[in-house]
Design goal:
Length: 339
Amino acid sequence: MSENYYNTPSEGNSKKPIYLALIGILLLINGILLFNNLSMRKANKETVTTLEGEKAQLQAEYDTAVQALETLKTDKAATDTTLAQIQLELETKKNEIQKLLSKSNASKGDLSAARTMIENLKTSLKGYEQQISQLRYANQQLTGENTGLKSDVASKSQTIAQQTDSIGRLSTEKASLTSEKENVTRQRDELNTQKEILTGQVNRASVMIATNITATGIKTRKSGKEVSTDNNKRVQKLKICFDILPNAVAKPGNKEILLRMMSPKGEILAIQALGSGVFTNAQTGEEMQYTKKEIFSFSNQKENHCMYWEQNNPFDEGVYTAEVYHDGYLIGSNNVQLK
């Protein structure tokens, strides 16, 4: 009985290291949890700061685009009724972007969507500015032509009056009239040269205006229904759609539109057997390959058109660039990424 009494404290002392180890492990776990908590708070704070900075940058880009739009609207050519549709589209895009940027707790997805919409707004603004420039130029040419015609009529009227007054002196003034005829012929040749120059400028103004260009990977089901996909292994063809806007300078009728597709490797997709060919870039004079061409009927109204590219080989993974040309001029482009 006496031996058991003295052995009990010894057993308690032997377990003391175990208790201390457990306490140490608990302290270590608490320290790890505290460190992780502080790290997460810091990461969240940095994320919020990043999103706020990105939002501020997007707001600045948006404000700049809106200011450019307001400036363009003050142009006299902007009052032309043919611009009403594109002005409405720009206002709609502007309001949609403002809704996203006005969110107090805008997410990363919201800001990404806002950035895409701002880029689309900038592209539309370029088309709007181009159309205003074309209308302004056409108006200037018409004004110049009217002034020239009035001057020409006045000059010829004066010549007729002089000839009427000089009818009795035709014999003596024959040499003078011959000289005048030569001057008129020279002036006519100069006017013809100027007319050719103006014709080239009018041709540039009559180029189609494209907007809302989209590029999509397409897979066709057995039912014939088209389904969009970005999986390069499933894509059977690329679909490029765009809106052709009204153009007061262009004449209605059939228009030849060229599609130029660039692969992720920077190579032009061109297969002669599938309709590919070569054209001349009207701005650089460079001979360039195009992927496909189609003829569309232009009625001077906003119309949506789509072009397809289906090749023999599978599509590679990466970003494909679609460029649309009319009369040798680039009228729009966009990208599609296949994964």
